[in-house]
Design a protein that fits this description.
Radius of gyration: 25 Å
Oligomer: single chain
Helix content: 10-25%
CATH class of the largest domain: Alpha Beta
Strand content: 35-45%
Low-confidence stretches: none
Structural class: alpha+beta
CATH superfamily of the largest domain: DNA Polymerase III, subunit A, domain 2
Mean pLDDT: 94
Largest sheet: 9 strands, antiparallel
Number of strands: 27
Shape: elongated
């Protein structure tokens, strides 16, 4: 194999795949990146066996071929050289990395020792949307997801396709977030709906890697592929059934408040200093229903309270929340004002926007 490639192209290609390479001591080749020629492009591939990222970059192909090289070493060299033009040549499983004033020989392994990257068999049916819409949906729910060995389905994001809309959902059983994308924002030729669970690490990779372009999604029973012109992200799906969360979505609200998001965010952060290890803050609607009190106390430190002007209707209440979960939810909104709905001290509360009903965030009170 003989190639000529620009530094920026190689650097960007390695950046796209580098987080996928694994430190698996049983399979050291997973630390390598596979470099091969493909359809007049240079293809870079890394995998951890659960997830694979394939990136195509431009370059001049003088001689076809392939090799796998330790990714960290190759990336370090590429990041730090000054020359713009790089010559890559393979001789006896050694990659010769040459510029006008630098040369390195990197010991590699043949492509045959690299894991086979699975292919999606069903490419007839697809879902297509702008990657920025997908990323926005993931960003609004991902902080409600936590990796769980006991309940692996909670360590993923639910992608629920319903023909006329697409729902993205995340929960760790203490809070839940859902974002709905309407059919005007995607194209699809699926004839029926489906539900799949995308691993958390795959979602994080999508956020890191995707730019503003159209992304096409293909699905097999056990795999999912996200693809654009020069990038493929293929991942195993999480086995299991996602919990039925519809019953916990409040159908009505005992108390509904409209308040400034920044006020509640600041209040939660300020009084959290007094919440100790429990992360508990008390929230109370004052008797006149004009102010919401956020309060926390610590026997060793003291107490702290913050009053927020609100427009409220319904019942007075006093309940406790995990301030970290509350802050996570508030950060997911961009609007100045939010709706904060509460149903007593032991039923789920909800955060939503007065003008955008495509997203909500639910959090459970801390039971006394």
């Amino acid at each position: 194999m003989k190639l000529i490639v620009l530094k920026n192209n190689l650097r960007d290609g390695l950046n796209a795949v580098e987080k996928t390479a694994s430190e698996n001591t049983n399979l050291p080749i997973l630390k390598n990146v596979l470099i091969k020629t493909f359809n007049n492009k240079i293809q870079l591939t890394a995998t951890n066996l659960e997830l694979a990222v394939i990136k195509l970059i431009s370059g001049k192909i003088i001689e076809e071929g392939s090799i796998t090289i330790p990714l960290t070493a190759l990336s370090h060299i590429t990041q730090n050289i000054n020359s713009e033009k790089i010559n890559l040549e393979v001789e006896n499983n050694v990659l010769l990395f040459k510029t006008d004033n630098y040369q390195a020989n990197l010991q590699g392994l043949p492509e045959e020792e690299f894991p086979i990257i699975p292919k999606i068999e069903n490419t007839n049916h697809y879902l297509q949307l702008n990657s920025e819409i997908l990323k926005e949906g993931i960003l609004k729910i991902i902080n409600a997801v936590q990796f769980s060995e006991i309940r692996p389905e909670l360590g993923g994001l639910l992608l629920d396709f319903q023909i006329t809309n697409l729902k993205l959902t995340g929960t760790d059983s203490f809070r839940l977030a859902e974002k709905t994308v309407t059919e005007s924002n995607f194209k699809s030729n699926f004839q029926r709906g489906f539900k799949v669970i995308i691993p958390l690490k795959t979602a994080q990779e999508l956020l890191r890697t995707l730019n503003n372009e159209m992304i096409t999604i293909f699905i097999d029973p056990n795999q999912i592929l996200f693809k654009n012109e020069d990038l493929e992200i293929i991942s195993r799906l999480v086995n299991g059934s996602y919990p039925d969360y519809e019953p916990i979505i409040p159908k009505s609200l005992a108390t509904e408040m409209i308040l400034e998001r920044e006020h509640l965010l600041n209040a939660a952060k300020l009084v959290s200093n007094f919440s100790a290890k429990t992360n508990e803050v008390r929230i109370k609607l004052k008797d006149d229903k004009k102010f919401l009190e956020v309060y926390s106390a610590n026997q060793y430190l003291g107490e702290s309270r913050y009053l927020i002007p609100v427009k409220a209707k319904g019942d007075n209440f006093e309940t406790s929340f995990n301030w970290r979960y509350l802050v996570d939810g508030l950060k997911n909104f961009n609007e100045k004002e939010i709706i904060f709905g509460v149903n007593g001290d032991n039923r789920p509360a909800i955060l939503k926007s007065p003008g955008d009903f495509s997203y909500f965030y639910i959090l459970m009170p801390i039971k006394a």
